[in-house]
């Protein structure tokens, strides 16, 4: 087959309209495929990219916020090419992290006093060097087999009480990057498989937010390509073998009873959804290596707590309020003691790292929380979460903090179409092998080809967790089909 000849006959269904699904569909359509349908469970496109305007006419990102890295990052290039990056330096806020800490980040203790800027700077700088070692694959032999938390405890030398508290905060922030409950559950050595494209790490988007980047891809899709409110229930992928269909080997059936026959299906649902539903979704069931990958890779929860105040109560030279605890959840002893039982639920709020002023919302703060504490928080009423956060802000800062007039709290862990936030590699898991097994198309090599293909951030060996990783996997699977049909 040459060029796009015959491609109009090929039926492809894409499950999910996050960056992976939309990138796959756009790539196929561009190559001349005329029969592409995207089935999306939600009533909106974008998946873990969710740009919204709940407080003012300015956008907020409930999911992904930044484009991470520049060089070789196709989403950065796309955003740049279409003039979608923010040019206003005041909006270019990064999350407060050990790598990016500045004098505008205020670190408070429980008694309302501040940790000195010098201690914060020193601890963050040493912490960053240690995590860089892990990410750059420069760990000493004895550290390679450890958890990330274990390695950091062993390598970090700190004698002052304040320094220890800031160190615990650094580990809590690192949990947000890893989307894990605790660094004592994450592999130290495997961190090096994750690659950050060069250039600034926190690239902020312009007024249209992440949705504007997605729109660039969506505009290439013919009307009707995406069907929302179409949750896929089952994927039967051996119909030709069973003799049930002469024409198409795959049948996709939705919860609403609609079914679609196709030559290929590209599954882009999150790893969380696969963990929840892979057992019942695929007929015949998935091969064992794929099931192992779904089980072994980690999929953690990161949530955002947006608090909107009628007036700003923090000084002009403050852009984030961080909280350090005498006994924080990432202290090794505290973590070990809380591994058993449910007592940690009583102090779920200790996992909140702090509150950052939100870009373009001068009176709004965003709190970050991860792991089992985030999942627990999701079960609470908004009002309880809001009051807890305001109480924390009052206790830690000692400032006159008014009540928050509006809130927006993400619940990614309990979202049945996502079931978490992003992927991590747990301790003692071979991330490379498992990402590859997750990405492998079905049936396995040697039998009928390419009925089911897999994309989505979790299927990328190096760029998992990110939007650009998701995008690249969508393009990868589309290219796989393009090559197959041009042979
Ligand atoms: C709080 C948070 C902050 C983040 N911050 C960043 C960031 O700053 N930068 C960054 O690069 N990344 C960030 N990420 C990660 C990034 O959002 C994801 O890696 C990326 O968006 C994943 O895209 P995807 O297409 O792989 O999956 P998804 O976006 O999850 O898309 C899968 C789609 O499948 C749909 N679906 C699920 N089940 C079914 C079904 N049965 N039938 C039909 N459709 C179904 C879902 O509704 C969803 O739309 C963040 C994520 C979260 C949650």
From TrEMBL:
UniProt entry keywords in alphabetical sequence: FAD, Flavoprotein
Domain Amine oxidase: start-end pairs: 19-482
Cofactor(s), by name: FAD
Top-rank taxon, per record: Eukaryota
Record flagged with keyword Flavoprotein: yes
InterPro entries for the chain: Amino_oxidase, FAD/NAD-bd_sf, Flavin_monoamine_oxidase
Protein name, entry field: Spermine oxidase
Entry annotated with the keyword Coiled coil: no
GO molecular function: polyamine oxidase activity
């Amino acid at each position: 087959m040459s060029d796009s000849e015959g491609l109009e006959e090929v039926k492809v269904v894409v499950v999910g309209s996050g960056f992976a699904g939309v990138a796959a569909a756009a790539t196929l359509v561009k190559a001349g495929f005329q029969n592409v349908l995207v089935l999306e469970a939600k009533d909106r496109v974008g998946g873990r990219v969710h740009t919204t305007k709940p407080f003012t006419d300015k956008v907020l990102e409930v999911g992904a916020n930044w484009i991470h890295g520049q060089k070789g990052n196709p989403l950065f290039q796309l955003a740049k090419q279409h003039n979608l990056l923010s040019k206003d330096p005041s909006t270019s806020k990064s999350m407060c992290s050990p790598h990016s800490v500045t004098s505008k980040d205020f670190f408070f203790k429980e008694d309302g006093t501040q940790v000195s800027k010098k201690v914060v700077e020193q601890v963050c700088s040493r912490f960053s060097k240690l995590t860089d070692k892990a990410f750059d694959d420069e760990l000493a032999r004895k550290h390679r087999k450890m958890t990330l938390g274990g390695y950091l405890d062993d390598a970090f030398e700190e004698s002052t009480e304040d320094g220890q508290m800031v160190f615990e905060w650094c580990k809590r922030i690192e949990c947000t990057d890893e989307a894990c409950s605790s660094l004592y559950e994450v592999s130290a050595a495997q961190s090096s498989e994750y690659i950050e494209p060069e250039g600034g790490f926190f690239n902020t988007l312009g007024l249209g937010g992440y949705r504007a980047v997605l729109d660039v891809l969506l505009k290439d899709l013919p009307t009707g390509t995406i069907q929302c409110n179409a949750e896929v229930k089952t994927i039967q992928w051996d119909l030709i073998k069973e003799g049930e269909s002469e024409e198409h080997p795959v049948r996709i059936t939705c919860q609403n009873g609609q079914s679609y026959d196709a030559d290929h299906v590209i599954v882009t649902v999150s790893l969380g959804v696969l963990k929840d539903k892979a057992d019942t979704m695929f007929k015949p069931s998935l091969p064992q290596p794929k099931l192992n990958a779904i089980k072994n890779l980690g999929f953690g929860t990161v949530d955002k707590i947006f608090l909107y105040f009628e007036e700003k109560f923090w000084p002009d030279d403050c852009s984030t309020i961080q909280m350090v605890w005498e006994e924080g959840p990432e202290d090794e002893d505290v973590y070990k003691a809380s591994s058993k039982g449910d007592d940690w639920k009583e102090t779920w709020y200790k996992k909140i790292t702090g509150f950052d002023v939100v870009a373009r919302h001068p009176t709004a703060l965003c709190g970050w929380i991860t792991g089992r504490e985030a999942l627990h928080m999701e079960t609470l009423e908004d009002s309880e979460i809001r009051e807890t956060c305001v109480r924390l802000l009052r206790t830690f800062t000692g400032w006159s903090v008014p009540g928050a007039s509006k809130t927006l709290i993400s619940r990614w862990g309990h979202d049945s179409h996502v079931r978490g936030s992003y992927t991590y590699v747990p301790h003692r898991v071979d991330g490379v092998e498992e990402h590859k097994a997750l990405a492998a198309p079905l049936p396995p090599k040697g039998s009928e080809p390419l009925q089911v293909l897999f994309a989505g951030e979790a299927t990328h060996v190096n760029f998992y967790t990110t939007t650009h990783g998701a995008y690249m996997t969508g393009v990868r699977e589309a290219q796989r089909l393009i090559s197959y049909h041009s042979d």
